[in-house]
């Protein structure tokens, strides 16, 4: 599987990144090399090997349902790049109205 | 002896005996920072006033007989991906340059509760992605042993700070070797605990199934003292193990007679630097003289470690770093310029509907302007490997190989108590040397990544120097939750050797 510039452009949208043309070229070269390197995993027959997503065998870690103070709204909003009194502000989400 | 040369254990004793004050010790660290920091660049922020105030409070507590712990008053530095309430926590990224966390990481909370003096925040590869601390957007860190060389990474600032004697101990994080590799490059001790031994709450996430917080010090004894402070269950981290914390510093004097040490065959193959090989082989002889028996061990899948690691870590990173959206916190692009450009693009586009919506463009542009090239590369690799059509071939296959790597370790630890090998294939490389080729940088992690994939514990220890005076690191690996065994072996080794007492000469 070789990675094309078009693949990289599509992935950049999925990843919510915006790569200018020059960076798109460099990214294609670097990613293609790394993808070619990780291809080596294909040589292993793993049909009977269950995947290991996590090193610790933990399941259903439960916490008591107790009340505790949550983060103060003002504190939560303090790092927002744009806000009003009680909300984060973003550009229009729906419609073509900028 | 100068105060900056005292270890954590020696400071504990000197503070308890009243021979030194926390204020004197802290001031000595700050003075040394002022002297050498311009050439090392280990810190992103030094909290001079705050540290002196904490030290004064510590002295007050001790005078009143209310010391919070034996380490009350000992200065410590924190890698800048650990959240500190009210103090900028940047991950050395333009994305978080202004981010001030509203809470402390659990590890930070525990250090404060024990009375340690938080001296400052140390530099790292952006979001802990890298092996040289060169992918750092907010600072440049150099190796105290040779200022032309990198300190390793990603915890390069913490390693350089400890090696340069500007602080007796520091906290780092290790996702694929980020504590052990810089420890080896800088000639100090670095412990990656078992996955789940230390809480990750407040550690800014890179790859959540691999990330682990651990101490970086000059001795194994100091690592034991810090680990017993920061380890333990945390209701805020569901992946933190529900196991009591042994008193690691109380079991360091174990007799190593009969200890079965496995030498990992694959860690001595082609690509290993001769000086590193010789230093590690000498270390092996030290362990033999301490009564350990040496066994040949094979980890047949370790050669797949790097490929497995970069797939899994990048997949997890692409998901974790989705939170940097220019909305909730962190960097945001210039919105009015963006809207103007977008209107223009739509006007001239053949298919205006295919042009990004303002919100999507805001995400994309904010992220690409504020994240560095390596971080974007890993997000791209992870997104690609998780995308439809590739998920099974890449991500799922990597998880299966991860199981094989883990099984190799389980089998090996059925035969031996600890594994031994080099921490890195070569000593610290020159700044700029590997920047053009990301893959060559990745290969430096060859011996360290598998411990993260398997979730086991690993310790890097100084074990010699190259002819050019660069430190060499030994790596010991232990089964899950056998940190006591690991630290005792390291402590015994350091009682027999003096590599950890060498001090880099700084102008």
Give the largest interface: A-B, 55 and 79 residues
Rg of chain B, Cα atoms, Å = 23 Å
Oligomer designation: heterodimer
**Major β-sheet annotation of chain A:** none
| CATH architecture field of the domain at 5-43 in chain A | Orthogonal Bundle
For the record, the CATH architecture of the domain at 3-257 and 459-476 and 486-501 in chain B stands as Alpha-Beta Complex
Helix-strand string of chain B:
HHEHEHEHEHEEHEHEHHHHHEHHEEH
Within CATH, the superfamily of the domain at 3-257 and 459-476 and 486-501 in chain B carries the name Amidase signature (AS) domain
Report the total helices of chain A: 3
**Which fold name corresponds to the CATH topology of the domain at 5-43 in chain A?**
Histone, subunit A
Beta-strand content of chain B: 5-15%
Q: What would the principal axes of the Cα set say about the shape of chain B?
A: globular
What would you report as the Rg of chain A, rounded to the nearest angstrom? 23 Å
Number of strands of chain A: 0
**At the first level of CATH, what is the class of the domain at 3-257 and 459-476 and 486-501 in chain B?**
Alpha Beta
Tell me the distance between the termini of chain B: 20 Å
Overall strand count of chain B:
11
Main beta-sheet annotation of chain B: 11 strands, mixed
Query: What structural category characterises the helix and strand content of chain B?
Result: alpha/beta
Helix content of chain B: 25-40%
Walk me through the topology.
The complex is a heterodimer of chains A (98) and B (507).
Chain A: H1 5-14, H2 21-38, H3 73-77
Chain B: H1 8-17, H2 22-40, E1 43-46, H3 48-63, E2 75-79, H4 106-113, E3 117-122, H5 156-163, E4 170-174, H6 180-186, E5 189-192, E6 212-217, H7 220-230, E7 260-264, H8 274-289, E8 293-297, H9 305-320, H10 335-348, H11 358-370, H12 373-386, H13 392-415, E9 418-422, H14 438-442, H15 449-454, E10 457-465, E11 471-478, H16 483-496
Parallel strand pairs in B: 2-3, 2-4, 7-8, 7-9
Antiparallel strand pairs in B: 1-3, 4-6, 5-6, 5-10, 9-11, 10-11
């Amino acid at each position: 599987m070789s990675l094309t510039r078009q693949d990289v452009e599509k992935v950049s949208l999925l990843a919510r990144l915006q790569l200018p043309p020059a960076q798109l070229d460099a990214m294609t070269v670097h990613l293609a090399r790394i993808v070619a390197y990780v291809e080596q995993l294909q040589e292993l027959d793993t049909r009977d090997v269950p995947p290991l997503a996590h090193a610790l065998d933990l399941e259903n870690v439960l916490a008591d349902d107790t009340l505790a103070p949550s983060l103060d709204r003002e504190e939560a909003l303090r790092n927002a790049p744009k806000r009003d009194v009680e909300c984060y502000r973003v550009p229009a989400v729906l419609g073509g109205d900028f | 002896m100068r105060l900056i040369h005292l270890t954590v254990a020696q400071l504990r004793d000197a503070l308890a005996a009243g021979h030194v004050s926390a204020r004197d010790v802290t001031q000595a660290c700050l003075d040394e920072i002022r002297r050498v920091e311009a050439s090392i660049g280990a810190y992103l922020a030094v909290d001079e006033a705050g540290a002196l105030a904490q030290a004064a409070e510590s002295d007050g507590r001790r005078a009143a007989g209310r010391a919070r712990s034996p380490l009350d008053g000992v200065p410590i530095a924190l890698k800048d991906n650990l959240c500190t309430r009210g103090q900028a926590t940047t991950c050395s990224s333009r994305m978080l340059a202004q981010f001030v966390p509203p809470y402390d990481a659990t590890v930070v909370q525990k250090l404060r509760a024990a009375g340690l003096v938080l001296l400052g925040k140390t530099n790292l590869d952006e979001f802990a992605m890298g092996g040289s601390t060169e992918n750092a957007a907010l600072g440049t860190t150099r190796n105290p042993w040779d200022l032309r060389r990198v300190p390793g990474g990603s915890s390069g600032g913490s390693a350089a700070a400890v090696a340069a004697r500007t602080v007796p101990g520091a906290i780092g994080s290790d996702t694929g070797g980020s504590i052990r590799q810089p420890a080896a490059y800088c000639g100090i001790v670095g412990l990656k605990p078992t996955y789940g031994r230390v809480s990750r709450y407040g550690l800014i996430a890179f790859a959540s199934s691999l990330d682990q917080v651990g101490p970086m010090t000059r001795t194994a004894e100091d690592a034991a003292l810090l680990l017993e402070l920061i380890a333990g269950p945390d209701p805020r981290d569901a992946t933190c193990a529900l196991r009591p914390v042994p008193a690691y510093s109380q079991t360091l004097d174990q007799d190593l007679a009969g200890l079965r040490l496995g030498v990992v065959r694959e860690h001595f193959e082609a690509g290993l630097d001769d000086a590193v090989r010789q230093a590690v082989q000498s270390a092996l002889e030290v362990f033999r003289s301490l009564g350990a028996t040496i066994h040949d061990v094979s980890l047949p899948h370790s050669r797949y470690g790097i490929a497995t690691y970069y797939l899994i870590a990048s997949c997890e990173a692409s998901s974790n770093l989705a939170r940097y959206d220019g909305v909730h916190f962190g960097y945001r692009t210039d919105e009015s310029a963006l809207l103007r450009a977008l209107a223009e693009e739509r006007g001239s586009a053949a298919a205006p509907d295919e042009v990004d919506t303002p919100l999507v463009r805001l995400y994309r542009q904010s992220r690409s302007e504020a994240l560095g090239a390596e971080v974007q590369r890993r997000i791209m690799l992870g997104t690609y490997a998780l995308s439809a059509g590739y998920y099974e071939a890449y991500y799922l296959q990597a998880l299966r190989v991860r199981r094989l790597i883990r099984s190799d370790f389980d089998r090996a630890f059925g035969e031996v108590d600890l594994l031994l090998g080099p921490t890195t294939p070569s000593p610290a490389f020159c700044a700029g040397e590997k920047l053009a080729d990301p893959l060559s940088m990745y290969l430096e992690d060859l011996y360290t990544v598998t411990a993260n994939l398997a979730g086991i514990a690993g310790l890097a220890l100084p074990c010699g120097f190259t002819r050019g005076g660069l430190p060499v690191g030994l790596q010991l690996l232990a089964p899950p939750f056998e940190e006591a065994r690991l630290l005792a072996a390291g402590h015994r080794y350091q009682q027999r050797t003096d590599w950890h007492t060498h001090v880099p000469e700084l102008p």
